[in-house]
Amino acid sequence: MSDAQTQIDETVKAHDVVLFMKGTKSMPQCGFSSRVAGVLNYMGVEYTDVNVLADEAIRSGIKEYSDWPTIPQLYVKGEFIGGCDIVTEMTLSGELDALFEKNGVAYSKEAADKIREANA
Ligand SMILES: N[C@@H](CCC(=O)N[C@@H](CS)C(=O)NCC(=O)O)C(=O)O
């Protein structure tokens, strides 16, 4: 594995929830990243953010790692979950709640319900 692949692999295995994004969770620099970070922030999920704009090798490396062409990318327990569209759909369908519950990731169900109510 290249250095970037090793670094990515170690990061997603060391933290329960990791979001590769443009910018940071407190200052996203792209609407798609902002949306996923916003959902996780609102749901009170503890997660590690990796700013791909800070490292070109990670920006290209994460696409190779997941075989997914875009950023953001959400990982739970080392597994690639999806980007903005998938995470949005999973939030609205309740699949994200189920995924967090299955993996013992703490989140606010009340906040998730509020997102669903607002988008009903
Ligand atoms: N439909 C995508 C939207 C994300 C997207 O299109 N990201 C683009 C623009 S931020 C991207 O990562 N392009 C490759 C790059 O900038 O390296 C999703 O669901 O996440």
Automatic annotation (TrEMBL):
The keyword NADP does not apply. Coiled coil: none annotated. Keywords: 2Fe-2S, Iron, Iron-sulfur, Metal-binding, Redox-active center. Transmembrane segments: none annotated. [2Fe-2S] cluster binds at residue 30. Residues 17-81 form the Glutaredoxin domain. Belongs to the glutaredoxin family. Monothiol subfamily. This is Glutaredoxin. The lineage of its organism: Bacteria, Pseudomonadati, Pseudomonadota, Alphaproteobacteria, Rhodobacterales. The gene is grxD.
